Amino acid sequence: MVHFCAMKLGERTIILLLMVFCSLEFSAWLQVSDGEADVVARFKTPAGSKYVDWGFARSGCWSMLKGGLIVDTSGPAELYFEVRKRKVIFHATDAEGKPLANATVSITQKRMSFPFGNAINRGIRSNKAYQEWFTARFKVASFENEMKWDSIEQSPGQENYTAPDAMLQFAQKHDIAVRGHNLLWDDPKYEPKWVKSLSPNELSRAVEKRINSIMRRYRGQLIAWDVINENLHHSFFETHLDKNASTIFFRMARQIDQNATLFLNEYNTIEDPNDSLSTPTRYLEKIRAIRSGGYHGPLAIGVQGHFYGLNLPYTRAVIDKLASAKLPIWITELDVDQNQTTDLEQVIREVFAHPAVNGIVLWAAWQPWGCYRMCLTDNNFKNLPVGDVVDKFIEEWSHKGLTGVMNATGFFETSLFHGDYEVRISRQNMTLSNLTRHFKLKTPHIPNETHRVKLLF
């Protein structure tokens, strides 16, 4: 519904356009035909998609989805239920094309495709218990402070890479991907102290040296960089160097490392509707400003996710809006402050269920004197209740092992989460060693497209 009205203010008349949207509630009971899966409900409208709720569904019992949406368009709508699983059909034959009927197929997930990680700090270098606890769970890491400018160059010209070098070596040894956090921080409070007194020319040279030093050192070894941190709230470099400083930094970073995904990284965008500085509209405006400033290379959206209480309909709507930019979205520093076990479970389910979210990193690096806000483990590396929540998700999203039997024509069908897999065929109590195969299961280009794996003996 649309209303027009006029308001007299002094000598000026202001025309107001008031749009009144309709709010609808949605609920549904569902179950899956076999196994279990995270399910998201999505309405497809002429204006785009609206995600209204997620749920965890199992075979043999009913689960309830309940959510809401704002109707801001007219016309038909289609309801979809989606999962992050994909149907896979295996076909095993011998060299003559004859099916391996009734052969046993064993499927093992070697790595989750969906990146799910946590922050670490320098304490992990010499703490074997911390290392074992972390590597048993995560394949993605961000360094809490160790790559920040203030940590590496506390005095001008005196760089110390000892800690991040050792941490990166540890990560690589255990096949853990690392996000670079962060290249530059726009909050003056977190700049190296000596930087604040530099002239514009001196600051420009110092920034260029910083970018070249750390990015060339770790070129090709990181999956991503938070290029500019929190510059919707702060503007140190824009104020002291150039209004298009962000564009300049992204261009420099891209020239040095063409493989790392380059992120903006901001807080309160998905967490707090009362923060007018970091609204999704302002975030998208910042992206457009970087593009119009002349940077046209790869770009990604980082939203930190430091939650003080939950407003999941707002979070969902924000991600919907950010997704309109058609850029990768990561939750980069996820933690919760209140009702940690229940709130963390709810927010992880919410963001994981959104197809625009490409990765989640928790902000729960262990410290013996206490974590930033949320600890997953005690000082003996026994899970706290919130750590059990994390383990539950890892278990849900993983396939520890699946065994089945080929039918009479050599086919076997199942549904798997995206990831890297090993499949092994055995027959008559004999394992056929040359029928061990590895395959990657990725998000299909065509929705609900079946992945087919041919196994030839």
Q: How would you describe this protein?
A:
The chain is α/β, with parallel strands linked by helices and 457 residues long. The chain is built from 10 helices and 24 strands. The protein has helices at 128-135, 149-152, 162-173, 200-217, 236-240, 245-256, 280-292, 312-323, 340-353, 385-397; strands spanning 2-9, 12-19, 22-30, 36-45, 48-58, 63-71, 78-83, 85-93, 104-112, 116-120, 140-143, 177-180, 184-185, 224-229, 261-266, 300-303, 306-307, 329-336, 357-362, 402-405, 411-417, 419-427, 430-441, 451-456. Strands 10-11-12-14-15-16-18-19 form an 8-stranded parallel beta barrel, surrounded by 4 helices. The protein has a 4-stranded antiparallel β-sheet with strand order 20-9-22-23, with no helix packed on it. Strand 4 (36-45) and strand 5 form a beta hairpin. Helix 8 (312-323) runs parallel beside helix 9 and helix 9 (340-353) packs parallel to helix 10 (385-397). The longest helix is centred in the middle third of the chain and has 18 residues, at 200-217. The radius of gyration is 25 Å and the shape is globular. Keywords: Carbohydrate metabolism, Hydrolase, Polysaccharide degradation, Signal. This is GH10 domain-containing protein. GO terms for molecular function: endo-1,4-beta-xylanase activity. Residues 101-393 form the GH10 domain.
